[in-house]
Amino acid sequence: MHLTKEQEKMLNGEYGSIVSRMMRLLVRLGDVYGAEKMIPVASVQVAGVSYKSIGDPGLEFLQDVASEARVKVLTFLNPAGMDLENWKELGIDEKFAEKQLAIIEAFKKMGIVISATCTPYLAGNLPRYRQHIAWSESSAVSFANSVIGARTNREGGPSALAAAITGYTPYYGLHLDENRQPNVVVEVKAELKNSTDFAAMGYFVGREVKKGIPYYRGIRDADVDDLKELGAAMAASGAVALYHVEGITPEANEVETEGIEKIEFGEEELGEIYEKLNTGDEPDIVIFGCPHASLNEIIKIARLVEGRKARKPFWICTSRAVKEVAERMELDKKIEEAGGKLVADTCMVVSPIENMFSTTGVNSAKAAHYLPGFCKQKVVFRSMEDLLR
Ligand code: F3S
């Protein structure tokens, strides 16, 4: 791979041993994928933040990196294993909290923004069309590539950290225009009534196309929340990192669909996914916000519950940035009066909810996919309105 003088210096240790280790990792990755050069990235999003996922070895690795290296570009963080401010109130164990806070301290020392969200694009890190970035959370990668038209591969935790510390990523995969062509057309015949229907469709398509790039035809309208659910679900049941929607996403009219495979998504497929993802009957708790809730979703929930009292607790997971605006609008009060909570920095999958509940209601297909394995939960998968009702 061709390296610039600056990149050679990084590799040869002139900026310290950690920078050299990180550059070596990127060069190896680039060699594996046949990259001809490195390109600068405008921003990075790092996953692997929860103590539940990375444990003590992860914590030690991060402390080692933080002892020497600092990030070179705007770098945001994925959700942590707990609300970093109100963890006691949510019943998080002290030992877990201590380790989680040590992880956060290491990231902070590196200069990473403690955004703790999987929706950085709603919380202060919005890339522009065609900009090269290195993000790692699968739903955020899908959103950035598809809805914004930025360019990123689905980075692992270490390769994203290496991009943050060096400012570069190898030029391969979805950074190249020729790799952004769709390979399957999805003819949408089902009536999609809400974001949960979009999530169910994404779950079906991800399972069918696996690592492919779907091109949706027949979606009349979709808002940002619908698209975030769609992408998150496809990245969970498959490994879709880019999709196009005719008339809606920015690259859809630049790509070629002639002669590629076609599949259909109708009412029958929609019903099959609801049946598959529902494994429980009566939830102990309902948790919204996978991916993290937008302000608009919080407004909708607050309106639905205003003046009413829920029989079961409900949480809404979101970023700290969105939570603070919601508090300023006193949406948190309406939600709390109804028996709910706005929870920041974390989510139902990366926090240890298995110690508190056994059946969780969600409106996200991604959460419904991971909760049984990661958190030993039975799942009730329904729309936001149905779950609140
Ligand atoms: Fe975000 Fe957690 Fe879902 S990281 S996409 S809320 S599983």
Describe this structure in words.
It is a single chain. The protein has three domains: 173 residues, Aconitase, domain 3, CATH 3.30.499; 95 residues, no CATH class; 111 residues, 2-Layer Sandwich (Aconitase, domain 3), CATH 3.30.499. Helix content is 41%, strand content 14%. The chain has 14 helices and 14 strands. The strands form four sheets. Strands 12-11-10-13-14 form a five-stranded parallel β-sheet. The chain has a four-stranded parallel β-sheet with strand order 8-7-6-9. Strands 3-2-4 form a three-stranded parallel β-sheet. The protein is globular, with a radius of gyration of 21 Å. It starts with a helix and ends with a helix. The site of FE3-S4 cluster (F3S) has 16 residues, from helix 13.
Q: What keywords describe this structure?
A:
14 helices; 389 residues; alpha/beta; binds FE3-S4 cluster; Aconitase, domain 3; globular; five-stranded parallel beta sheet
Q: Which CATH first-tier class of the largest domain would you pick?
A: Alpha Beta
The main sheet comes to: 5 strands, parallel
Q: Would you report the number of β strands?
A: 14
Count of helices?
Answer: 14
Mean pLDDT: 97
Distance between the termini: 57 Å
Strand order of the largest sheet: 12-11-10-13-14
Number of domains: 3
Oligomer: single chain
Q: What percent of residues adopt helix (DSSP H or I)?
A: 40-55%
CATH homologous superfamily grouping of the largest domain: Aconitase, domain 3
Shape: globular
Ligands and ions found:
FE3-S4 cluster
Structural Rg: 21 Å
H/E element sequence: HHEEHEHEHHEEHEHEEHEHEHHEEHEH
State which percent range the strand residues make up. Answer: 5-15%
Name given to the CATH architecture of the largest domain: 2-Layer Sandwich
Coarse structural class: alpha/beta
Weakly predicted, low-confidence segments: none
What is CATH's topology name of the largest domain?
A: Aconitase, domain 3
